[in-house]
Structures are given as C-alpha cells and as structure tokens.
Amino acid sequence: MYNKSLGIFYGILGVVLFSSKAVMVKLAYQYEVDTLDLLLFRMLFSLPFYILILFLIRKKIPTVKIQAKDYAWLFAFGFIGYYLASYFDFLGLNYIKAGLERIILFVYPTIVVFLSWIIFKQKISRVQFIAILITYLGVLITFWDELDVAVNQVLWGGFLVLLSAITYASYLVGSGWLIPKFGVLRFTCYAMIVSTFCIVLHYVFDGGWEFMDYPWPVYIYGFAMAIIATLIPSFLVSAAIERLGASNFSILGSLGPISTILLAFVFLDEKLTLWQLLGMAVVIFGVTYLSINRKKQA
After folding, report:
1. Most buried of 17, 56, 72, 233 (most Cβ within 10 A)?
2. Cα–Cα distances in Å, from 119 out to 170, 174, 297?
3. What ranges in the chain are assigned the alpha helix state H?
4. Cβ neighbours of residue 33 under 8 Å, at least 6 residues apart?
5. What are the residue boundaries of the EamA domain, all occurrences included (predicted)?
C-alpha cells in the first residue's frame, strides 16, 4: 500500500513538473528568444546530468545482448521522440496558449491507439473508438472558441503541437520493445544525448549564433526547463511507472492539462473561457476513459 501511495505521489509530481515546461517556454518567449536557442539551452543544461547518470550505472550490465541495429533504432527514436517532438512543441508555443498546447498534446494516447492499429494491426474496440471521438470533440470545442482571436496563428500553432503529439506517440509505440533491452535509465540517457546531438547539429546549420546575447532570465528559464521540467520529472515518472504500471500511471496524466492551465493562469495571466474549460473537461474524460479501457483489456 505504501509503495503504491509513493508511486501516486511520484506520478502526480512528475506530471505537474513536466507540465510546467510550456509555461517556462512562454515566459522565456517574452524576451524574444529564438525557438532553436531556447531548445538548445534546455538540452545542453540537462546533458551533463544524463552523462553523469550513465557514468554511475556503467557497471550495470544489460540482461539482453544489445546489437548494432538496436543502437540504430535507439538513435532513430531519440531523434523522433526527443528532438522532433520537442522542436515542434516549442515552435507551436509561439502561436498558441500554454493551456491549449497541453490539451492538444494530451491526445497522444489516442494517436498511440491509431499507430498500434496501423503498424501492429491491433484492433480498435468500439469503446476505444467512442473514447477517441469524445477526445477529439473536446479538442474541437477548445479550438472553436480560440479561432475568434487569430485563426491562422492558432491553426498553425495547433498543427505544430499536434505534430509533436504524433512524433511522441510514434516514439512510445516504437521504443516499447527496445527499453527493456537497455533499461529505462540507460535508454532515457542515450535518447536525450541523441536529441542534444541533433539539436546542436540543427543549430550549426540554422542557428542565429546569438545564444550569448540574451538577458539573464532566459538562461534561468532554460536551466529550469532542463532540471525542473525535464530531468527530475523523467525519473519521477519512471519511478511511478515501476510502482503503478504504465496503465495506472496513464490515468494520472489527466492532471497535465489542469496543472498547465493553473500555472498559466498564475504566471502568464492566461484566461480560458467556459467553452475552453468544457473542451478541456471533454478531452480529459475521453483520454481517461480510453486509458481505463486499455487497462482492463491488458
């Protein structure tokens, strides 16, 4: 019982800390920081910690023999799940509210169901299909009210964040069989290092080389994103999944949009209308219903 309660605590804290990332990005954007620069700060500031963790677990020998193709797949999933997903998300936050971003990202479990159906031919049950319809109805309600403000900006920003959800879902679907080979800690560290390499390479070819010219709060937000919204929650979530199981933990994920909206209200003065709150409630209900159904089928 104590182990489960601790898992719930770790899970809630991890979800809330992860959710704070969007608010920190929006706060940093107030200083007109470039998207690629901000993403570079996030990854470079967290990189030493992941390298340190790899060093500390270096004597832990994987139980399964790791082949060259496994490392190739790891690179691919690090590229998709931590580089592309993060880049699309940071770009999208230039155009939409932090609360709306989290609601769109929250639909990734429905994308996982679709990808599992397309790739692994896993049948979508009637209940799952209904839950998915409910979820996207909620997203539509949320968007509908926002379109009065700036149609093109909101649609483009929402599309970019949806791409982030799709790439992250692809990472979850594809890496599931690979994580047990490396172990959660080693796989996460390797994937983050791959992502950092991709971002640095991107910056070499496309960066503005102005990363030393920003006001000091930008670097504080970059460091906070690296530690508070990336490093710490990544291990809290791993600890929660270990104690609760992936299915039970996925239900706690419904706290993500709520915590982001509350944080955005406090720190960004973002206000949601009744229609947007209704849309958020519908999305949370749909995803939670889907998660509970998948848990029963597992």
Report:
1. 233
2. 10, 10, 19
3. 2-29, 35-56, 68-78, 85-92, 98-105, 108-120, 126-146, 151-175, 179-182, 184-206, 216-226, 232-244, 246-252, 255-267, 274-297
4. 214, 218
5. 6-143, 156-291
Name 15's Cβ contacts closer than 8 Å, sequence gap at least 6: 233, 237, 252, 253, 255, 256, 259
Estimate the crossing angle of helix 35-56 against helix 85-92, to 10 degrees: 140
Inter-residue contact 163 to 171 (CB < 8 Å): no
Residues in the chain: 298
Tokens 């020998």 found at: 61
Per-residue pLDDT tens digits for 130-171: 888 888 888 888 777 666 666 778 889 999 999 999 998 888
Place of tokens 């955005």: 264
Q: What do you get for the CA distance between the two ends of the chain, in Å?
A: 22
